[in-house]
Amino acid sequence: MKRLTLLMLILAFLGGSQSLSAPQPKIKIIADQDSAGPEGTNFLSLLMLLRAPQVDLLGITTVSGDQWMEPATVFALWATEITGRTDVPVIKGAEQPLVNSQREQEAREKLYGSYLGWHGSFNPDAPHPKEIWAPPGGFPKVKPKPGRAADFIIDTIRAHPGEVVLYCAGPLTNIALAVSMDHDIVPLTKAIYIMGGSSGGGPELNWWWDPEAASIVLRQPWKEITITPFEAGGQVWSSERLMKRIVSEGGPLANHVKQVYLDRQPPAGTSIWSMMWDELTVASILNPTVIKKSETMYLDVDVTHGPKYGHTVVWKPSADVPEFFLPYSGPRPVDKEKWKGHLTPPAPLHPASVQMEVDVEKFENIFVNLMTH
Question: Of 112, 99, 103, which Cα lies nearest the Cα of 306?
Fold first, then answer.
């Protein structure tokens, strides 16, 4: 009997050891990205995803935003080539916003003035939407997968119900089209991570460029919504110091980083250094502890086509009825029952975890590790 008990304990221990050492399942991700390149937040975030060993990158869908969709597709394909990941399909997405247009944006600015310096593909000197140019070393040999981004998103989520994380780091046009075509993919999606919007309620390009799309996506009952707002990305910047770390540690991307960040001067009026918005979103998917503080907010986008068109609308939950200065109130105590309806979130919106404070050192270590090992 004692021998049998001892044998059972040994087997249980061995089984437990095996389960502890068993590899964790990879995170299935679709990357929806306005993948401008060869430098910048869009491109570097794709390199992180393509190199992350814990990620099963199911596909990259391209969209216009910082750059038009056609050149963005070229750079997304090039990202798969320089990382040796041409197994990851790249699928073309929306070229234009759902409603907004460059003509309307320019007409609006004549009425109200320009409130956003960077207009992305709507910049007055932006290339033509169909113009493409070669990355360093020439055009990629790999071609985009036939089909449309919205269809790919729908089919992929349905093929992996409850497993797919949507990483959205450009305007949300493709996602809005997908959920409008097949609303049932929303509960089948594991989580949606969105780089966009403002935690303070101001303008930000990804949502400003296609406000209707952003509003459609934010109003869906996703299981989990995580937002990297403009302000969080402002806490981490690319720099010569950071790129020298990557080059000094070596690895397959060291020459790329040296070539595009350290060996060349940008054209006049441009810079190769920027906030690392999209990279931060990727890092937070891989290691949530990179975010030191988050807040629950209910977010939407102003779609009224007035002076605040495209601005983020923020509603924060309140713990209790506000306290008022006595002379401004009546002679009776506050009636909390009557206040209840005013303390509930707007009906169409859903709680989102909005990143507020970043562990900069941890973020930089994650970024350098993915770019070098």
Answer: 112
> Do you find a cis peptide bond into 89, omega within 30 degrees of 0?
no
Amino acid at 155: D
Measured between alpha carbons, how far is 37 from 365 in angstroms, rounded to an integer? 23
Burial annotation 251-280 (CB, 10 A radius, 16+ → b, else e): bebbebbeebbeeeeeeeeeebebbbbbbb
Which tokens in the block code for residue 49? 């995803």
Q: Which amino acid is at 338?
A: K
pLDDT digits (tens, 9 = 90+) for 181-200: 999 999 999 999 999 999 99
CB atoms within 10 A of CB 341: 7
Closest CA to 56 of 146, 141, 156: 156
| Among 354, 19, 25, residue whose Cα is nearest residue 163 | 25
Nearest-CA neighbor of 353 among 223, 188, 203, 165? 223
Enumerate the H helices of 102-204 as residue ranges: 102-112, 149-159, 173-181, 185-188
**pLDDT tens-digit profile of 130-166?**
999 999 989 999 999 999 999 999 999 999 999 999 9
Contacts of 205 (CB under 8 A, 6+ apart): 65, 66, 116, 118, 119, 120, 171
Which residue in this structure is represented by tokens 């770390």? 245
